[in-house]
Amino acid sequence: MAGRRTIQKDPRNRDIRTRLRSWAHLLSESGSRPKFRLFVFACAAGLWLGLIVVRLWDLQIRQAPRLAEQAKVQHEDLIEIGARRGRIYDRFGEELARSTPVDSIGVFPTKIGDPDMAAELLSEVLREDVSTLREKLTRKRFQWVRRLAEPGESERLRELPLAGLHFEKESKRYYPKGSVAAHILGAVGIDHTGLAGLEQTFEDKLKGVPGQREVQVDALRQGYASRVIEEPVPGYDLELTIDQRIQITVERELARAIYETKAEAGTVVVMDPLNGDILGLANWPTFDPNDRTPTVDDLKRRKNYALSHMIEPGSTFKVVTVAASLEEKLTTPDEIIDCEHGRIYLGSRRIRDHRPFGLLTVADVLASSSNVGTIKLGLRLTPERLYGYARRFGIGQATGLPLPGEAEGLLRKWEDWHPHAIGSVSIGQEVGVSAVQMARAVSVIANGGLLVKPRVVQALVGPDGVREERESAAPERVLGAETAATMRALMERVARGGTARLAQTPGYRVAGKTGTAQKIDPETRRYSTEDYVASFVGFAPVNSPSILVVVVLDSPVGKYYGGQVAAPVFPRIATEVLRFRDVPPELPLDNAPRPIIPDELLADFASDDDDEGWPESMRVRFARNSEEENPVTPAPSARTASMSPLIGARPPSPDEPTSPQLSEPVDWPDAAGRVPREGAWSDSNKPAHLRFVAASLPDFRGQTVASVISRSNALGLALQLRGNGKGWRQWPAPNTPIQRGDTVAVDFRVGARQ
Question: How much is the pLDDT for 644?
């Protein structure tokens, strides 16, 4: 038919339709058969069961550990059971630190109905700022309002009708004696971790091992069952070497000394010189370790001055120089030392004594604390030997006490010393020590020549009661027993008639040495002329020492010599401590009032450049420069035996004229010791009566200072001396006619010959 398109059918579509009709016919026929339907059901059920089994295997076996852990997290809580922190005792079992369970108080703000009222109630009990508490109560999450509350605070809060309060037991560290031994014990923080002192050093031993408790909780996180799965192990207890009674005494007397001298800081160390046990150690300022919210000032108070603060020992170091000289057989106690009338030159540096000493025995050099005499002994030793003995005495080495922050001290190797350093080191300058290091050094003399290692912990006691002794290191021989005995006698002389007279203790023989050192001015980096460190180290009884005491006062106001302010602290401490240690008096008790001792007899220090403290009649003044008309200007000098002439204020220079002209005559005191006033002779109409002697000036070249002084005194001459060693030039020249009262100037030089 025209116009009609023929549609061709695809044979593949016909095959598909044919197959579908065949399958439908087959199913309709098999559906009428029960066995076939059962087979299909069984296959479907088996497939379903297989899927279930696979899923069960996946949950019960393959994912079992992970799911079990999730269930445990959801339904179990592990709570740490804090271990009891170890206690700290003194040597006789007196408790110094313990831990007690207390409540820490928190709040769930969402359960607080009226935050303003709750803040007022909490503020009344806790004495906290209301606005601070109100801010915490308006937050959403849990807030602590008081950690480690006092028992009374916890009890009062439990009685308040406040919802949302939470009480949780925590361990709190208590120090029953307050600030007693605070710098030894240290302190702990809010998390019960040691922050200073022994609490910090022995943290691993004291804290113990915490236990664990398992708590079953429901969907609301409410516990309904619990069990302990690991018991806590208490920490170790510490037994210290200190005696609580001695510690209290030391702190009381140090506070008294600080009050009397108005010193900035201070420390006292009491040690058993035989074994190194620290019996007491006090510092000022101090702190109360029970206060867990320290201020900035409190942090400064926590510095352990006895260990962390390094000072120049000053004259207390002279015992090392003298002991080394005796041990090396370089001197004897009776040898006479020419102290050059109080001045000695090392290169261009002048070092002087606090008094113009002449001839002194070695025993008197130590008793009077002569710088010149001690330096001369140091020069005999040589730098290498002096350094070696200082090291053997423990100078410049940490003591090893288990307390944080110890300073090692300062003692440069002798190869690094400048040419004249031996003069400084001999008298305790250019050396740094702590109070404990000084105690260790002097214990060598007290115990017969052995260097002991100080210790403050004598034992650790484990939770099972097993005691672990902390044995000290074996002592090292430093001095022979004979030398040590000699030094004890010399130091006793210092206390009986030297600079440490105020250290005498009723009923006991005492040995000691005073010291006064200049502090470094932080601005000028030079020695200060206003701030000093006064110190004293002594022991008693002399022949069988039971205690050794070091007293250091930093920057006392007014009097500052060690013999004036530090030495008097010793008898106040020693009297009680020796009684505590059952040491009977060895001398009759004398209740007579102590005589007043002039300050000049207690002095042990003089600066290099200052004549302050010398009698006016004994001072020598020099011109500021060589261009002045009179380079030498002598002050009036006394001719009495007690007023010896001095060495000049600076070493002679080759450029100086050989015949210096005196600018003014010498005014002699009258029989009453009065010096005429300026112009007194010219205003008087009475003639002057002069006595002449037929004599000529001796030749002083090549002679010692002592010889020049002796011959000049015999002739009634006034002297102006400069330098040290032997005379090498003089004015007037030898054989010049002289008369009594004339002034002679003599220059001295080391190695000069006639």
Answer: 29
Residues 373/362, Cβ–Cβ less than 8 Å? yes
Looking at 190, 210, 240, the residue that finishes a domain is 240
SS3 assignment, position 636: coil
How would residue 220 be classed by pLDDT, with cut points 50, 70 and 90?
Answer: low
Pick 402 or 138 by higher pLDDT.
Answer: 402
Rounded CA Rg of the chain: 44
d(CA 272, CA 276): 5
Domain boundary among the residues 196, 215, 240 is at: 240
**Looking at the structure, do residues 112 and 212 belong to the same domain, yes or no?**
yes
Same domain, 273 and 225: no
Q: In whole angstroms, give the CA distance from residue 130 to residue 115.
A: 10
Q: Length of the chain in residues, anyone? A: 754
Count of domains forming the chain = 3
Residue ranges making up the domain that contains 432: 244-588
Residue 60 makes CB contacts below 8 A (sequence gap 6+) with none
- Answer yes or no: is 597 within a domain: no
Q: Which of 99, 104, 315, 369 is catalytic?
A: 315
Here the CATH number for the domain that contains residue 127 is 3.90.1310.10
Which among 663, 634, 660 has a CA at the least distance from the CA of 646? 634
Chain centroid to Cα 363, Å, comes to: 32
CA distances from 204 to 81, 82, 194, 235 (A): 17, 14, 9, 8
Identify residue 305 by its one-letter amino acid code: Y
Tokens standing for residue 242: 């200190």
Q: Please tell me whether residues 638 and 506 are part of one structural domain.
A: no
Asked whether residue 16 is assigned to any structural domain, the reply reads no
The values of phi and psi at residue 680, to 5°, are: -65, -40
- Are 463 and 436 in the same domain? yes
Whole-number Å distance between alpha carbons of 681 and 299: 66
CB 274 within 8 A of CB 447: yes
**Which residue carries 């906290």 as its tokens?**
128
pTM for the structure as a whole: 0.71
Q: Which of 483, 442, 462, 455 is nearest to 324 (CA)?
A: 483
d(CA 24, CA 30): 10
- Report residue 360 CA to chain centroid gap: 36
Residue type at position 426: S
Q: Which of 441, 406, 203 is nearest to 304 (CA)?
A: 406
Say if 3 falls within a structural domain.
Answer: no
Looking at the predicted structure, is the pLDDT value of residue 610 above 50?
no
**Residue 753: what residue type?**
R
**Domain match, 560 and 632 both:** no
Instruction: Tell me, yes or no, whether 427 and 456 share the same domain.
Output: yes
Six token digits for residue 141: 């999450």
Q: What is the dihedral of CA 752, 726, 611, 715, to 10 degrees?
A: -130
Q: Are residues 236 and 252 in the same domain?
A: no
Q: Which residue has the higher pLDDT, 662 or 509?
A: 509
Instruction: Please answer whether residues 565 and 559 qualify as being in contact, where contact means their C-beta atoms are separated by less than 8 angstroms.
Output: yes
Sign of CA dihedral 356, 358, 362, 363: negative
SS3 452: coil
The CATH number of the domain holding residue 677 is 3.30.10.20
Do residue 424 and residue 523 come from a single domain? yes
451 pLDDT exceeds 60?
Answer: yes
Cα–Cα dist 444/188, whole Å: 36
What the block records as the tokens of 463 is 């939770």
Whole-number average pLDDT of the chain: 80
Q: What is the pLDDT of residues 525-570, one digit of tens each?
A: 788 888 899 999 999 999 999 999 999 999 999 998 999 999 999 9
The CATH number given to whatever domain includes residue 524 is 3.40.710.10
315 is catalytic: yes
Is 601 inside any structural domain?
no
Q: E strands of 231-383, at which residues? A: 237-240, 265-271, 278-284, 336-338, 343-346, 349-352, 359-361
Cα 67 to Cα 184: distance, rounded to the nearest angstrom: 52
Which structure tokens are listed for 12?
């593949």
